[in-house]
Amino acid sequence: MRDLRAVLLVAFGFLAAGILGANAKDWTTVRIATEGAFRPWNFVEGGKLGGFDVELAYELCKRMNVTCELMAQDWDGIIPALQAGKYDAIMAAMTITPKRREVIDFSRTYAVGPHGFAVQKAGPLANLPGAGKSLSLTKDADEAKKVVDGMRDMLKGKVVAAQVSTTDLAFLEKYFGDVATVRSYKTTEQHDLDLIAGRVDLIMTGVTALNATIEKPGYETLTLAGPTFTNDVFGEGTGVGLRKSDPELKAMFDKAINSSIADGTLKALHLKWFKTDNSPKE
Amino acid sequence: MPYFELMGFGPLGWGWYMMSAAGMTLAVSLSALAIGAILGSLAAAAKLSRSRVAYGIADAYTTVMRGIPDLLVIYLFYFGGSLAITVIAQRILQSNQFIGVPSFLTGALAVGVVSGAYQTEVIRAAYLAIYPGEIEAARAFGMSRLLVSRRIILPQLIRFAIPGMGNVWQAVLKESALISVTGLVELLRAAQVGSGSTRQPFDFFITAGAIYLVLTAVSTWLFHRAESRASRGVRRA
Amino acid sequence: MNFYLTTLVKLLTGVPLLLQLVSLSVSLGALLAVALALMLRSSLSPLVWIGRAYVFVFRGTPLLVQLFCIYYGLAQFGAIRNSFLWPILRDPFWCTILALTLNTAAYGAEIVRGGLQAVPHGQIEAARAAGMSGVLLFRRIIFPIALRQALPVYGNELILMVKATSLASIVTLMEVTGIAYALASETYRHVEILACAGLIYLSINFLLTRGLALIEHRLSAHMRLPKLVTVDATHY
Question: Do A33 and A107 share a domain, yes or no?
Fold first, then answer.
């Protein structure tokens, strides 16, 4: 029994030494997680991660003078794993919302993108009101309300969908939850497939992602419809998700993002991946 | 794309991808079975012991793990597992460093913990089936406890447990499909990736089903062989 | 404490759907299981082979794979999407019912077959000698004995089905697991919410186990010793 205790003590000692010794608070390596299933922000091609978030991650790490370690993580577990310490930052087209701010911290925004709807071209929802208009739910509140009311009539009894744990799902539940059936899916790909199959009548996600989806072969039957929205439930824009206990890392990211805005690199990346400049205006 | 080209081993084929995912399924299932065997043995020992406390803990373990859905256990380990271990590390070792629990281990642990509950019953039933007179006789001969375990108990335990273990293994193999929700690329997840990429879900899921069938059929045959071999020399009623 | 109570209340709203899924799939599955068991015991070898193949496939593949085949796989075919089956297969509820039914029928077939096999042939001979045949023979002799044998095992299958309904959450159905998952993804309090969901499943299974034990007790009255009645002689 005494021997067992001694052995355990020594084992613990080694474990503790190994862990304490490898303290990474001086940030030489930053592990960043992305979803890897949300074109064009992040995706997996040929076994490697690619996309806007991925390229920006490497760019920011260069500016922060650290080595980047990028990994893929399913969207539904991306925040819990950050809190558990599996990685140090999230760059996965994650919008900054008050709900998320309760559990994690964010860097400054590096993108602002509208959210919109996609439907089947040949379906009854192809002519949603407010087509093509870009509305801010806070600044254009009245017009937005009119369009939303018009949509509510058309969506009665229909099935609408968004990815779980997103601002899009919150929007659908808030404005259409009582007239339509709202379904949540684990990945955007799953609701895309069900839209094509006709199981759902409308999906909502970021406009950049919708454009990328429609361009894929086999998805020609889909089209964007209705208006696009920003602000309110959609938060202030996209930022890097960070633990609340890492303020130095947040400062490093903020500095790097600011410098990439200042010399136009961020804008160039936006134009490369989104064909439009969605970079923050301040 | 026609089915055999899609699943083939050519440049555009998904054959290698599915095969390696099948390998992952086997790997995670074997790990889960091993974890379950350890937990099952401990819990069976607890249930067979004279201690009311040990019995109570083991009983709670088997009741809970057999009463809640496997998907829920997997979600708990997936969302909370790393958290639990890191919290333990923080309290005991005063460290903020993450102790990595890769998704393979999360899945294997989750399925293993559930499987352990079923294995408890298999092992316990197998132990109770051993004729107590043999153990008495062995002790009367002067065999030490260890020798009795090695020469008398263990061989018979294994022989009696094989049918039950066969069922447990089949269950673990099929439960490994649920680990796909954690993102681990085992067979079902691979089929999902393939079907999303090519928009031919039926082909991929049928293939996955066929591979599972092969795995279960081979397993059944192997367990039958093991049972006959373990029962050689035993007089049948 | 308040959080846990509100979570439990929200999760309980998923129980009706869970009960619907279980009751519908188990009852339909039982009917199919009887048919399959008869096929397995029949003397026509094609029927036996079909039955064996069915049981082999549905017991040898994971339920989730079967569910995905039906939900995602069948939707791939335009022929199905344009047929009369589509309103049924379009709905995740019916896809899940179909998958659960087909799956439980395979296990049920073996259970029913075992139950029928357990009827001692001597009893059937005696009944035939007494002039019973057909429906009467089944109702008075075969069914009760087979039921007594099969019920404990089928009860186990029932509990497994209750747990299997949690897979419905993966195809967007909002039963208990689905609600727990959605709730947790909004509030990020995964462990607490999932633990509450586990509690609900445990309670349901506990009630089921007790209920089944009661039924078994009632059915096996003839195998128990009669209760001894003591008369107190001093009372007169």
Answer: yes
Chain A, chain C: beta-carbon pairs less than 8 Å apart: 34
The answer to the question of residue B237 being in a domain is no
Nearest-angstrom CA–CA distance, A245 and A238: 20
Question: Residue B147 sits in which domain range?
Answer: 3-230
Tens digit of pLDDT for each residue in A247-281?
999 999 999 999 999 988 999 999 888 888 887 87
Interface probe with B: pick from C183, C186, C194, C205, most Cβ of B within 10 Å: C194
Q: Chain A: residue nearest C183 by CA?
A: A165
Distance in Å, alpha carbon of C230 to nearest chain B alpha carbon? 35
Q: Beta partners for A238?
A: A95, A111
Q: Parse chain C into domains and list their residue ranges.
A: 17-173
pLDDT single digits (tens) A41-84:
999 887 789 999 999 999 999 999 999 999 999 998 899 888 88
Residue A100 resides in a domain: yes
Q: Which residues of B touch A80 (CB under 8 A)?
A: 79-80, 82-83
Q: Are strands A37-38 and A29-34 parallel, antiparallel or unpaired?
A: unpaired
Are B205 and C197 an interchain contact pair (Cβ–Cβ within 8 Å)? Answer: no
- C-beta separation of B173 from B187 below 8 A: no
| Alpha carbons B3 and B204: distance in angstroms, whole number | 9
Whether A206 contacts A113, CB under 8 Å? yes
Q: Which of A131-140, A261-270, C69-78, C86-95 has the lowest mean pLDDT?
A: A131-140
Question: Would residue A15 count as lying in a domain?
Answer: no
Tally Cβ neighbours within 10 Å of residue A257.
24
pLDDT digits (tens, 9 = 90+) for C113-138: 988 888 888 988 999 998 888 888 88
Domain residues for the domain of A123 are 115-234
> Who among B67, B80, B209 is closest to C69 (CB)?
B209
Residue B42 lies in a domain: yes
Contact status of A84 with chain C (Cβ, < 8 Å): no
Measured between beta carbons, the chain C residues lying within 8 angstroms of B62 are none
With CA atoms as reference, report the closest residue to C159 among B172, B118, B174.
Answer: B118
Clarify whether residues A53 and A138 are in a common domain: no
- Indicate the CATH number of C17-173 among 1.10.3720.10, 4.10.520.10, 3.10.110.10, 3.40.50.2000: 1.10.3720.10
Asked whether residue A155 falls in the same domain as residue A199, the answer is: yes
What's B69's domain CATH number? 1.10.3720.10
With respect to residue B133, please indicate whether it lies within any of the assigned structural domains.
Answer: yes
Q: What is the pTM of this model?
A: 0.87
Sign of CA dihedral A52, A236, A26, A89: negative
